[in-house]
């Protein structure tokens, strides 16, 4: 009798909807009901079959034994079956804890009538245990189980002159087993729900990670193409222009080659301008609509968690695109590490322009770390997908810069990168032709 389990997982102490129908599988706190699993459907059918079988047994024994109250027993069994069926089919019972409690009270009254006319009504207590534990809050459910067990014991004693230990132990042990079964089922259901949520979160995170990796790959390729075009084609065309201008000045006025040289220089200038347009088109989106300082200020404003302030020092200069990209990416990586690892309350980014260099400082008041033992990630020894300290250092050193990290446990962290500015504009042709610098 005690092998039956609640028809659907209660999930919590609150009354869940739909205890006996296939449309209610989730706990009351769940935002939407999910279809019953095969196991839950089997448990629901087992509870129906258990109650129906016990009622048939009570009525059948009354008829077989020609009990003087056989008619009353059959009527009580029919009434209990009708009340049970009405509750199973009533939507209000599935949605409202109060309606469920009223239904249980009706079942209890019908069961009390059956218990009064037949000792076989004692066995109906077992399915009632599970219904009470399922529909009521835990403390009220346990209290209802205790009252039901006492009523079962009283009904048995009313029909039997001999008080045996089994008369007391049977209902009490049955109630205890029912409570343990329901609590165990609840624990298993909660664990199953946690695993389901973790799996859904893992799937979502994996999709987001894949999208982030694709986006990072696209941006990295754009930066690489921009750098290659800038460092090869643009520089080569600039050199060609300088050489052609020197050739123009070296030839005497009226030389036959002068028109051809002028035409070649104009073609080189047009192709240089086109190469620069390619570089600008491949510039990261953060730098498309403003300067590096504006991009850093927007970055600070959008950081979740710590308060981040941006400050600008010195006279701003137009930096080559590779410089701006490198400084912006280093700032993004450092701030990401501050948010994820440093547990900082404040952080500050300072962009300083000097005569021969530009410096970017990122300082936070977090818990700090030991730079000598950190592999990747500011303040964390765990990998962060290649955007940690080695990646920042590589970006700076690629442009001939200096990257330093100062930190101690509990003392915050300071990251500084210094890039030397070229003595002349990166495109030498800027000194001789009014073409916009990248």
Compact summary:
The protein has 438 residues and is α+β, with helices and mostly antiparallel strands. It is 59% helix and 8% strand. Helix 10 (321-342) runs antiparallel to helix 11.
Outline the structure in words.
- There is one protein chain.
- A hairpin with a 3-residue loop joins strand 2 and strand 3.
- The chain has a five-stranded mixed sheet, with helices on one face.
- It starts with 37 loop residues before the first helix and ends in an 18-residue tail after the last strand.
- Helix 7 runs antiparallel to helix 8.
- It is built from eleven helices and five strands.
- The chain has helices at 38-64, 70-89, 91-95, 97-117, 125-135, 138-159, 165-250, 258-281, 292-301, 321-342, 389-398, and strands at 307-313, 346-353, 357-364, 402-407, 413-420.
- It is α+β, with helices and mostly antiparallel strands.
């Amino acid at each position: 009798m005690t092998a039956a389990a609640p028809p659907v997982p209660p999930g919590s102490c609150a009354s869940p909807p739909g205890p006996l129908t296939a449309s209610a599988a989730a706990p009351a706190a769940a935002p939407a009901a999910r279809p019953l699993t095969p196991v839950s459907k089997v448990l629901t059918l087992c509870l129906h079959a258990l109650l129906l079988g016990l009622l048939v047994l009570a009525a059948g024994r009354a008829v077989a034994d020609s009990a003087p109250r056989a008619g009353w027993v059959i009527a009580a069994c029919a009434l209990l079956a009708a009340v049970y069926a009405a509750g199973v089919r009533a939507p209000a019972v599935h949605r409202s804890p109060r309606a469920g409690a009223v239904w249980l009270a009706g079942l209890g009254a019908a069961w009390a009538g059956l218990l009064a006319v037949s000792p076989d009504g004692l066995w109906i207590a077992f399915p009632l245990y599970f219904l009470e534990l399922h529909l009521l809050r835990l403390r009220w459910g346990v209290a209802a189980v205790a009252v039901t067990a006492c009523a079962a014991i009283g009904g048995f004693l009313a029909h039997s002159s001999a008080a045996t230990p089994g008369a007391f132990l049977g209902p009490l042990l049955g109630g205890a087993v029912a409570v343990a079964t329901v609590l165990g089922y609840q624990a298993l259901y909660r664990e199953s729900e946690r695993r389901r949520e973790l799996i859904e979160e893992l799937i979502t995170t994996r999709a987001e990670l894949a999208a982030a990796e694709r986006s990072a790959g696209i941006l990295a390729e754009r930066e690489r193409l921009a750098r290659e075009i800038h460092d090869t084609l643009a520089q080569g065309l600039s050199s060609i222009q300088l050489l052609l201008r020197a050739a123009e000045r070296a030839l005497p006025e009226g030389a036959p080659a002068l028109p051809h040289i002028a035409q070649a220089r104009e073609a080189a200038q047009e192709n240089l301008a086109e190469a620069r347009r390619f570089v600008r088109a491949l510039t990261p989106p953060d730098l498309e609509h403003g300067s590096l300082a504006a991009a850093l200020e927007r970055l600070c404003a959008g950081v979740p968690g710590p308060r981040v302030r941006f400050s600008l020092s010195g006279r701003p200069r137009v930096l080559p695109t590779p410089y701006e990209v490198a400084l912006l990416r280093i700032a993004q990586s450092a701030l990401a590490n501050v948010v994820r690892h440093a547990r900082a309350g404040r952080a500050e980014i300072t962009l300083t322009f000097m005569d021969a260099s530009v410096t970017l400082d990122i300082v936070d008041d977090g818990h700090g770390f030991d730079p000598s033992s950190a592999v990747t990630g500011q303040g964390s020894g765990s990998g962060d997908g290649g955007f940690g300290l080695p990646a920042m250092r590589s970006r700076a050193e690629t442009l001939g810069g200096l990257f330093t990290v100062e930190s101690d446990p509990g003392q915050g962290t300071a990251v500084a990168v210094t890039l030397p500015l070229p003595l002349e504009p990166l495109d030498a042709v800027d000194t001789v032709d009014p073409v916009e610098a990248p």
